[in-house]
Amino acid sequence: MGITLDLYVCPAEELPFEDASVDLLTSFTAAHWFDTEKFMREANRVVKPGGCVAISTYTLDMSLRYGNCSEKLTKVFREVRSRSLNLGASPPGLGRGKCLDAER
């Protein structure tokens, strides 16, 4: 069984997906520009139950705000960021200086 990956470039606050249709929603180096409240509503709408939202940013002091789990989300975000920056480590699964082949 292969993995199907579709890449979309679109406003984070107006996602072009049906309700509960997305397994993984990602954003890298852009979340600090989002209207967080609108984005989180959209993410909640489109991500399947048990799905995942993965956000990464260069903003070191970023806080995540969502419902009653804001503190926990921010703690997890900062821990992952700290671990990935430790000694210049690459993110899991990526080697230093390697590019992903866009046609894979």
Automatic annotation (TrEMBL):
* Membrane-spanning residues: none
User: Would the keyword Transferase turn up in this protein's UniProt record?
Assistant: yes
Which GO BP terms sit in this record? Answer: methylation
Q: Which domain of life is it from?
A: Eukaryota
Question: Can you name one GO molecular function term for this protein?
Answer: S-adenosylmethionine-dependent methyltransferase activity
Sorted alphabetically, the keyword list is: Methyltransferase, Transferase
The record's listing under Pfam families reads:
Methyltransf_11
UniProt domain Methyltransferase type: residue ranges: 6-55
The entry assigns this protein to a family as follows:
Belongs to the methyltransferase superfamily.
Q: What is this protein called?
A: Methyltransferase type 11 domain-containing protein
Q: What is the lineage of its organism?
A: Eukaryota, Metazoa, Chordata, Craniata, Vertebrata
